[in-house]
Design a protein that fits this description.
The protein has seven helices and no strands. By secondary structure, the protein is mostly helical.
Length: about 200
């Protein structure tokens, strides 16, 4: 795949995501390539988070403690776990609804969706520096992009035709997972109960 091919896939992810999903599935990437893609987006996401933190400290003048290596590793591991969970949920729930997609294919699609979101986060970061008032709009756009990509990719993976049903399932799984994860984090003391 050339840089031109990559750029075209990125652009088509916004306009023709189901076609992009079919192209990615048709590549039949070997296991090593799938895991490499997963690790790449995990690292990119963590590096971006660290970069944003460093720049924001410079902008606001806050001293604060530097992010430790262990914190970065935990962030990276959590990112990877979320991608794997997303791929598993996409596979299992889709198959229960009559789909035929595999975990390997879902893993590629979720990793690609994460890559597109990382590009969106880069744009949001620049927007935050230039026009801070639009930060919340950028965050809302990224959430909408996440749901859009997950819906389109799930439909392409399993051959579903009703995007409304797929979207409703994606939203239900997302909020259900968030509630369960929130309860677990609060019970473990990782997040204050008032949050």
């Amino acid at each position: 795949m050339t840089f031109s091919d990559l750029r075209l896939l990125i652009l088509r992810s916004f306009t023709q995501p189901r076609d992009v999903a079919r192209v990615l599935i048709a590549l039949r990437l070997p296991a090593q390539a799938r895991w490499t893609a997963l690790c790449l987006v995990m690292v990119l996401s963590s590096v971006l988070s660290l970069l944003v933190e460093l720049v924001m400290r410079g902008v606001t003048g806050e001293a604060g403690e530097a992010t430790s290596v262990s914190t970065i590793l935990v962030m990276t591991a959590v990112q990877g776990a979320l991608i794997l969970y997303g791929a598993a949920a996409m596979t299992v729930l889709g198959r229960q609804a009559g789909g035929q997609g595999t975990f390997a294919e879902a893993m590629v699609l979720v990793s690609w969706a994460e890559f597109i979101l990382i590009l969106g986060q880069c744009a949001q970061f620049v927007l935050m520096l230039v026009v801070p008032q639009l930060t919340m709009i950028g965050a809302a756009a990224l959430i909408a992009l996440l749901f859009y990509l997950l819906t389109q990719f799930t439909a392409a993976l399993h051959g579903f035709t009703s995007l409304i049903k797929v979207a409703m399932a994606v939203i239900a799984v997302f909020f259900g997972t968030a509630m369960i994860a929130g309860m677990i984090f609060v019970s473990l003391g990782l997040v204050p109960a008032q949050i």
